[in-house]
Amino acid sequence: MNEIADATRQEPSVQAVMRRLLTVFEHERFQGKVGDRFFDIQDEPLCVGLLGKTNAFTRQAFSSKGKITMALIDGNYARDYAGHREDALQHLQSVYADFRIELERVIPLLKHKARM
Which of 98, 94, 93, 108 is nearest to 53 (CA)? Predict the structure, then answer.
């Protein structure tokens, strides 16, 4: 989440934050990594909720109706980014926190199931 905090605090506008996050996203190849894991767990009933949250890790998240874009255009962020920088950070962090929370819920269940 450091990349999100750095981008929201250092960049001057919503568009600059999105460009920076997209650069990190592409450099880290998140879509490919998530896609590989998605294939591994797509038939696992315990992972249904997790699979629904993986779209924050696709290029679509940066499109006009994507999770990242929607998190950044909410409220007055675009009109007064400097005044709403911390709100934007919290909103972005919540997008990824939803995924992390679901992941933390599913991992112990999958480990338990694997031992059975």
Answer: 98
Tell me if residue 89 falls in helix, strand or coil: helix
What does the pLDDT read at residue 9? 92
CA–CA distances in Å: residue 8 to residues 21, 47, 73, 109: 9, 31, 13, 34
Q: Is the pTM of this model over 0.70?
A: yes
Angle between helices 14-28 and 81-115 (to 10 degrees): 30
CA dist 112 → 45, 84, 109 (Å): 14, 43, 5
What is the rounded distance in angstroms from the CA atom of residue 47 to the CA atom of residue 50? 5
- Cβ neighbours of residue 71 under 8 Å, at least 6 residues apart? 88, 91, 92, 94, 95
CA dist., res. 111 & res. 95, Å (int): 25
